[in-house]
Each structure stands twice: as structure tokens, then as C-alpha cells.
Design brief:
Structural class: alpha+beta
Largest sheet: 2 strands, antiparallel
Helix content: 25-40%
Number of helices: 4
Oligomer: single chain
Strand order of the largest sheet: 1-2
Number of strands: 2
């Protein structure tokens, strides 16, 4: 049976969503580098930077699935659940 781990972060409640400008301001106010935040959570620093610096009105990265979705949820850009599967849990089985 495939094991899946659902992380503790769940942003499905009515908390107001943040804009990318608000997120940049929060990082600047706290003095936290994007790369440190990303590494602490197991994400690519380049992906976090690309998402934070994207355009709010016409984003290049849609953040619909995978790490991009998880990053957007943890940053407060969108509602949803952060999901990370254990290694190998999402592999397709070989059909003989």
C-alpha cells in the first residue's frame, strides 16, 4: 500500500490571501533570505524566488501542482493543502 504523508500546513480556512508584494515585504522585515526559507522546507530556492518575484496579475508560474503549488500555499498566495509523497510513493507500477 502506498504511504502518503500530508504535512501539517493546511490553508483551506478563510485567512486572507497575500500578494507577492506583501510576501516580499514580510521577508524583508524579518531579514529572512528566500533561499533559507526554501531549504528549511525542502524546496528549490530558485523556484521560491521565481514564484515570489512573479507577476500577481499575470503569473508565469500558475502554481497548480507539485512544489510550485506547495510553495504558493505555504507562502499564503493560494488556499489548499501542502502534500508531499514519500519517496517512490507516486511511481507508476510496471504492467507486465
Amino acid at each position: 500500500m502506498q504511504q502518503r504523508q500530508l504535512l501539517h500546513h493546511n490553508r483551506t480556512t478563510a485567512m486572507p490571501l497575500k500578494t507577492r508584494q506583501q510576501i516580499r515585504a514580510e521577508f524583508a522585515a524579518r531579514g529572512v533570505p528566500y533561499s533559507a526559507w526554501a531549504r528549511d522546507r525542502g524546496y528549490s530556492p530558485n523556484m521560491v524566488i521565481a514564484i515570489v518575484n512573479d507577476d500577481d496579475h499575470n503569473p508565469r508560474l500558475k502554481c497548480l501542482r507539485g512544489d510550485a503549488h506547495n510553495i504558493a500555499v505555504e507562502l499564503g498566495l493560494k488556499r489548499g493543502q501542502v502534500f508531499k509523497a514519500e519517496a517512490g510513493a507516486l511511481r507508476l507500477s510496471h504492467v507486465a
